[in-house]
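fyi for ur records
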Amino acid sequence: MFTGIVTSAGRVTRTETLESTRRLWIEAPEVTGELQPGDSIAVDGGCLTATAVQGVTFTVDVIGTTLERTVAGGYEVGQRLNLEPAMALGHRLDGHLVQGHVDGIGHLMQSIKSGEYWIMDFEVPGAVFDLTVQQGSITLNGVSLTVSDLLPDRVCRIGVIPFTYEHTNLGDLTTGGAVNVEGDLIGKYVERILTKRGESERTT
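which gave:
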């Protein structure tokens, strides 16, 4: 489990495309000191396993469904990635409960600076939009964010403070830029329960 509070940003130093896997080398001195091979780490919100740790660089392998559902297939050398080690049991939960199971890819529609902060509109997958509520939580590239408004055409409006804009890769995005999207965990369970209850009532 994760919290959506990005602790640092790493950079891709090397990529290798194998038959069914994409291997990434990520330079991240702020996390490699405590990271061990086999540990889980959220990379732009996707839960991955560190397969090796060498100095300030760790390696991950991205496979199958993860390549299909996330932006990892498009990472380039030099690109900045949001990182969060797995949450330790008993630690403070500053963001919200995040599984690191990306639901799909969203896109930045516009980013407007308003005083000291940024208003960012993201088109998100329909399945995520349907379970998202105003003032609720959503995870974009691993960052726990509050939805300030829900707009037509599956657009979620987010307010981003300067610290988040500067210390995560949300500030690197340009119009049309792709992001990993994870919907609210509680919303998923509520939707599932209500759907199954409705199916049961129709059968009865």
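Helices lie at 29-32, 64-69, 126-129, 162-167, 185-203. thats all i got for now
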